[in-house]
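@channel sequence for tomorrow's demo:
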Amino acid sequence: MSENTRKPTLTEALIPIIFLIILLTINVTVFGDAALDGSNQIVLLLSAAVAGLMAFRIGIKWETLQNGILHNINSAMPSMLILLLIGSLAGAWMISGIVPAMIYYGLEILNPTILLFASCVICALVSLATGSSWTTIATVGLALIGIGKALGMGEGLIAGAIISGAYFGDKMSPLSDTTNLAPAMAGTDLISHIRYMTLTTVPTLAITLLLFLGIGFGYESTHSIHDIDPILAALSTSFNINVWLFVVPVAVIIMIVRKVPAIPVLFAGSLLGILWAIIFQPHIFQEISGGAYSPWRAFYVGSMKALYADVSVVTGNGIVDELLSTGGMAGMLGTIWLILSAMVFGGIMDASGMLKRIAEVIIKMVNSTGSLVASTAASCVFFNITASDQYLAIVVPGKMFEKIYKERGLDPVNLSRTLEDSGTVTSVLIPWNTCGAAQSHVLGVATFTYLPYCFFNIISPFMTIFFAYAGIKIAKLRDKTNR
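structure tokens (generated this afternoon):
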């Protein structure tokens, strides 16, 4: 910092946050679910401008702010690339019959009574095996949301069950990036971190499953079992449904389990989907290519459109037609725009020291183990809202609180558990966070529509705070018996 630069006051640091919250509230009230079409992005950029004015006021130069923005965007670049590939994978798996087959067999097995419970369990197992909530939601989750809609279940409910299960697996899997990041930031090892997390995570999942089971038994579907028959008929008429279609998702899961990075896995999954479409659904290409082409030209045009553009298969059944439409890579551009806007705001807030200033105030409020854990959890949620990225919501609080946990004689596993219980799982509840924006777009359900039903994500931070205030299994330094 130059001699003309000073530390921001708390008021200066809070002004952009207050401006953002007020404008977002107005925006959601005026635009509703359409707020993500562009108005929220503008709100984030306007808030970034306000943050920039505060930064200039304390003497920060534009070059410093620009470097902060670029650093933030660079950290989000893998997420944006993954989003593009998820768009292409969704298109490829739709025309290949993979997603239709999942919906078809799912409708034959599942019913509204157990759908929420089963969806949560299925996504938890897949995410636990793969370590990726994003991949789980973009594959199995897409099929389950289709099954839920076909059974007449509210999209917010089914999306909440999918996300709850997916984030349980993401949080507990040793293959997950956040599960490895949290102990690294706190200064502990992976195995101790996972073992200590089970104390809060298993009860949270149990409560979540009981809630979904209870809702399922009390749910009155608007569809009877006979309403499913036309859907099954439309799917089997439009696609060649067979078990061989599941080779591709199984291959994707195997690659992820073998620790192949997400970007090449999703790219390979997209290409395999196109290959399976050529093998099993050759008739579909004339329809989606939009012209009477020769077979090879139809294959080429149809494949390209499935990967990058809006594609739909018309079956004559309104419910099925709604399920069998994807936006490809182009459909993800609005979400990427949202992420870029959020990174601009977060980058300026971070580079100007305003986020750090607010964090210092939070730390000063700590006077007990319970308040320390509660402050850590609140900081994780705060950074998910302001920095708009779950990694920053783990890294920044992790570094902020690492020393104070040790000074109070607390084992680092307490910190790493809190980071995961609060940082990882709440990211998907924020519409402009990379996770919230991504999952909302992939599932086609507005964040505020599924938020009330993400029981696992909502309960997790409260569970870790309850354990801290109650003094349950709070590990002390050099006290291995509490682990």
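heads up for whoever presents: The mean pLDDT is 84.
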